[in-house]
Design brief:
alpha+beta; 4-stranded mixed β-sheet; 10 strands; 51% helix; globular; binds flavin-adenine dinucleotide
Length: 380
């Protein structure tokens, strides 16, 4: 085992840290307040190579490994988890599946512009009636010969507005249940696709989240990803990698809150001494440090498995469950360490606490991760 990062991984970590601390931090409170898409940062992240960073160089991507990817997501999310999710959804949920399962033509047309970040991707699985139980797809893709006719509504779609390429799942053969689901790739500006206004969220407010409506949308046959009926498997495989990005995001949120709590505890005095000299506060910091270290190691292990082409789905579920639950606990405690100051926006930890909550919900709730993990244990 080697716990040392390579020079390249350290460089990517530093680049993400520099951007987050020097550029993203400046206007993060304003972005949280206004809940507007951070177009300028998206452009900068593209120029720095973070959008498409894990796509192979053959398709114009950065060709970076998963360890580098989780390091970058962690650093961005320490400062602004909205930027973390934009990068994560684009890389893991949009690019990765197309590279793994797409045809040469699909890769040429859709992956290449996503690999350079020229076009952003989104992943449309959830529906009003299909959340944790994604088998219940109600969006219908009727086979019309040389095209599919798609109708229905997707909801909770991250990057829905800032993306121009959509990967979506739809039911083609309802009688076959989840084996009848297909995955497709399509441009957002295809006639018949419309968006709701974006959701007014608790946290990650500058990451756009919308419902997407399909009304008689014609999707060419060649836009189906994988063989007929592969869509559910496609989505589950893609989410295994997606969860690693969310785990890294949770880690970043937790680490950002811990850094602020440590710093504050070394400046604030109560009862004649620094609050970090009160054991009750020092122990909170110790608990934060232990959880962060454990989460980081779980994430690295899952990323290492992925990079070495070994099964990583259970490891990524474990990493996501632990990192997101820990992020929630750590951010709540960080607010406590800052006392009243923790409760106001200027000190950032209340925002990090709001952001942490989402990591326990999307790309599979904590309960769903426990189902995945326990099933694997019971099958052993
Ligand atoms: C801001 C945001 C962004 C999102 N981005 C995307 C996106 O880009 N693409 C996309 O496709 N989806 C996205 N989602 C959807 C997200 O993945 C779902 O919200 C999530 O999977 C949970 O589904 P649900 O909200 O319908 O909750 P439900 O499935 O209705 O679950 C409600 C509660 O019941 C629990 N529960 C459900 N089933 C079980 C069970 N069998 N055992 C125990 N407990 C259970 C859940 O854990 C949860 O606590 C996003 C959601 C949000 C809020």
């Amino acid at each position: 085992m080697n716990f040392e990062l390579t020079e390249e991984q350290l460089m990517i970590q530093q680049a993400a840290r520099d951007y987050a601390q020097r550029e993203a931090l400046k206007d993060v409170l304003e972005r949280d307040e206004k809940a507007e898409i951070p177009w300028e940062h998206i452009k900068n992240l593209r120029d720095l190579g973070f959008l498409g960073m894990t796509v192979s160089t053959e398709w114009g991507g950065g060709g970076m490994d998963t360890i580098s990817y989780v390091l970058a997501i962690e650093e961005l999310s320490k400062v602004d988890a909205s930027l973390g999710v934009i990068v994560s959804v684009h890389n893991s949920l949009a690019c990765w599946g197309v590279e793994k399962f797409g045809t040469q033509e699909q890769k040429e047309k859709y992956l290449r512009p996503m690999a350079t970040g020229e076009k952003i991707g989104a992943f449309l699985l959830s529906e009003p009636e299909a959340g944790s139980d994604a088998t219940q797809q109600r969006v219908i893709a009727e086979d019309k010969g040389d095209y599919y006719l798609v109708n229905g509504t997707k909801n909770w779609i991250s990057n829905a507005e800032c993306a121009s390429i959509y990967i979506f799942m739809a039911q083609t053969h309802p009688e076959k249940k989840h084996r009848g689901i297909n995955a497709f790739i399509i441009e957002k500006d295809t006639p018949g696709i419309t968006l709701s206004p974006h959701e007014d969220k608790l946290g990650m407010r500058s990451s756009d989240t919308n419902s997407v409506m399909f009304n008689d949308v014609k999707v060419p046959k060649e836009n189906r990803l994988g063989e007929d009926g592969f869509g559910f498997k496609y989505a589950m495989k893609v989410l295994e990698g997606g969860r690693l990005g969310i785990a890294a995001q949770a880690l970043g949120i937790a680490a950002g809150a811990k850094e602020r709590a440590v710093q504050y505890s070394k400046e604030r005095k109560a009862f004649g001494k620094l609050i970090c000299e009160h054991q009750a506060i020092a122990f909170k910091l110790a608990d934060m440090g232990v959880k962060i270290e454990a989460a980081r190691n779980l994430i690295f292990k899952a990323a290492w498995l992925k990079d070495n082409n070994m099964p990583f789905g259970i490891a990524s579920a474990i990493a996501k469950l632990y990192a997101s639950d820990s992020a929630m606990e750590i951010t709540v405690e960080a607010v406590q360490v800052l006392g009243g100051y923790g409760y106001v926006k200027e000190y950032h930890v209340e925002r990090l606490m709001r952001e942490a909550k989402l990591t326990q919900i999307y790309e599979g709730t904590s309960e769903i991760q426990k189902i995945i993990i326990s099933r694997a244990m019971l099958d052993e």
